[in-house]
Protein 1
Amino acid sequence: MKVGVPREITPGERRVALVPDVVPRLAAAGHKVLVEAGAGLGSWQHDGAYERVGATIVTVDDLYAQADAIVKVDRPTPAEIGRLHSGQILVGLLQPLLDPATMQTLADRGVTAISLDAIPRTLSRAQSMDVLSSQANIAGYKAVILAAEAFGRYFPLLTTAAGTARPANVLVLGIGVAGLQAIGTARRLGAVVKAYDVRPETKEQAESLGAQFVTLRTAIDATGTGGYARELTAEERSTQQAELNEVIASMDVVITTAQVPGRRPPILVTAAALAAMRPGSVVVDMAASALGGNCELSRVGETIVTDNDVTIVAPENLPATLPISASQFYARNMTELLLHLTKDGALHLDPEEEITAAVVITRDGKVVQPATAALLQAAGESAHRARRRPEVPAP
Ligand code: NAD
């Protein structure tokens, strides 16, 4: 199979789907790697490094014309979709549940769309393909680095001839993959770390990394399915908030990573909590996206300072800010998935197999992944109902 790596064109994206390191493994399995000229430059992977391990550098036109599979990081733009042809395979972080309409377009064009974010994460043999974990790990690390940079004091306890510096008090909200990495990184920098999550099982994980787990007076267990959290009820939210506000007010740095699949991230740092923080405190809202964030005042992609001098950092696409590590991990996850889905150098999809069933979103002109198909059907039915709604007679 000819595997094509285009240059990512989403603004701010610096990752690349395959790095030179993984090319020999793909070649050994019978694949040929084509790379668009300059595709790796955002992560300092030069064309020559790809050529040295046997990849071929081509123009973007040749790439889309010749490749059997296009492997990407970000969801394709309309211009990129326009370049895909029937029978071609597209693999990337397609986020089908956020954008089912694009999946329908891909199906209509006869493209087989395969999404890395649909990997069944709790399946141990799929762990090496788990891009969400590898990239969340990077984001958790970088969130702490950004916090340390924005914070006007040391993180560690330092005793010097010029005096003693108190360690920073850091609170990590959300103890998933990113939160655990944030705890570990803040501890390595010498901070005193507290952490909180609505899934009680995370207490032991946080403590094993040296954080103190915050136990609220009113215990909430919001363990959902697949290791994720469920959305809190309105009553749980208000109890949680009142108690969390007290903890937040005593912190120097708050790093928020809380997500609920398919929903807006919960607000955990309210405007009132921010108003009670000391000047110079820092909030890094890692959950911030177009859907919203964990901090009420964060503005995605911006760093703002509140009236009481609290800095709120709401970075977009943190993994892209550590492009070498992010691309290396992404490329290894991608390679594992490609090797899993191919046999003797050709695509071999077994719809009965668990990983394949989860990641193949479109095939043979149809959207085949049940969750995405259901969203499209619901959207179609509501559009149909809107068309049939009787016109309101003029008064
Ligand atoms: P995520 O990004 O969906 O959420 C991050 C964290 O936010 C979660 O721990 C969640 O419980 C927490 N959260 C949600 N609402 C909250 C609220 N109101 N207040 C406080 N915290 C809140 O999670 P993730 O990092 O993608 O990981 C999800 C789960 O998947 C974890 O249990 C992780 O261990 C598991 N996982 C398992 C495997 C595996 O078994 N191989 C691999 C990867 C991830």
Note: The chain has a mean pLDDT of 94.
Protein 2
Amino acid sequence: MHGLMMDMPLLVSSLIRHADRWHGDTEIVSKTVEGGMHRYAYSEAHKRARRLAKALGALGAGMHDRVATLAWNGYRHFEIYYAVAGSGAVIHTINPRLFPEQIAYIANHAEDKFVFFDITFAPLIEKLVPQLKTVKGYVAMTGRAHMPKEKIPGLLCYEELVEAQDDDYEWPSFDDRTGACLCYTSGTTGNPRGVLLQHRTTIIHAYAASLPDVFCLSAREVVLPVVPMFHVNAWALPYCCPLAGAKMVLPGQHLDGESLYQLFESEEVTLSAGVPTVWLGLLNYMKQEKLRFSTLKRVVIGGSACPPAMIRILQEDYGLEVRHAWGMTEMSPLGTFAVLKAKHAKIDKEARYAIQAKQGFPIFGVDMKIVDQDGSELPRDGKAFGDLMVRGPWIISGYFKGEGGDPLRDGWFPTGDVVTIDPEGYMQITDRSKDVIKSGGEWISSIELENIAVAHPAIAEAAAIGVRHPQWDERPIIVAVKKPGGKVSKEELLRFFEGKVAKWWMPDDVVFVAELPHTATGKLSKLSLRQQFKDYKLSSAA
Ligand code: AMP
């Protein structure tokens, strides 16, 4: 017997419609690529999204057609999110930091029909045009006055497209399992693979993401997503903010410490989210200028492990609450958040930090377990570590076009992360399975070594990688960047590890560099580092 409730599909368009009807005057403020600020409210964003949806129809972008974006966080990108998915097409957010060959590969693989781009990317688009086989039109996301001069065939102007239409448009209704958004994840081996989010899963995920123990969104928050809208939809914030009626502040391409700080202050931002490297830049700037936050109260940090030292500084010196989070593109992306439980109210500071350094417990909707190499489940004792498997309604069932075959094992998705789960349910990542350092048949956690290195007052950023060793197979070395003016010798840094890890985990060497390589999503690029240090000779191996 079916229940007797209204049968309404869960569509992305309902989010912007809701924000317009009930939070119509709540602002979206953007730092534009043309220079200056743009401000309007949800009601105007909704109007323009509907006009754009009409324009897309007129251009011939129909149901299921892929419409790509190469764009920063800004109000036009936000409108495209809703116009494309709302009208039944699929928005394909491309990471412009990828190599041009990778962009060409994924745009061709996705069979993108239109490409919308911020004018900063016009030179890149000009270079890409000859390689993009399925694209029928390019749209510069600007007004007539700033149209790029590059040679891009049949180039269209975003503002002209929007202005040519009225907003007399009803969002269509369709099966909510329809694909809404396509994000490619850069596999470290093989080609990038597409993750196709559904309307239904996007809405359920946005509900869950807004919960108090997750982003804790409300109509009283002012949210600045530093995480780009081209990296798994800025962790779903462009969906959660309209759902909750929160004000949005979109920083464009200005992600340096000074620009972000000014925006946090001038727009009275209360909540932000991004990868650890972003906070590094911000903290350096704020320390140098002796600044404080006036309104910011919570930051969500994830995408790669947030060093405990960073959590401590943000909380103790800047009065913020840090929420360490874990997820993946294949999970829409949110999986776990490290927040405290009621029983932790009276634990001491160090015990609290130990919890916050972990990646956290699952959000309702995500189930997880750890397994050994034979697939047998391991205990949740905080000691046994194994492969993390997940399942849930916003987790991938297969990659776009079946790339890579069936990714599931007995209905679970293997994350590629090696983790422990403690008896209280907190998951902690030991490593990405390919980054773990294998020494004498045992595993050393690169994340743990990195966390110790960056706790040294003179170290800004550090990577731990395994280098070849004739006897032990691999031994760990630390590749580190010093803080401006930071003074520490190799021997001093090695001594800093003493007593903090088992003897055989002690790094064999330290190499100081000016800069560490990062991936297109701001994570340490262990792959390029391992490549760079592949012939490194350890003195212990002599
Ligand atoms: P992506 O799909 O690009 O977001 O990458 C997902 C991967 O990033 C995960 O499988 C983890 O290896 C890593 N990751 C994400 N968040 C964290 C975190 N808080 N700590 C450590 N690794 C993380």
Note: The pocket of adenosine monophosphate is lined by residues 185, 232, 302-305, 324-329, 333, 359, 415-417, 429, 432, 521 (CB under 6 Å).
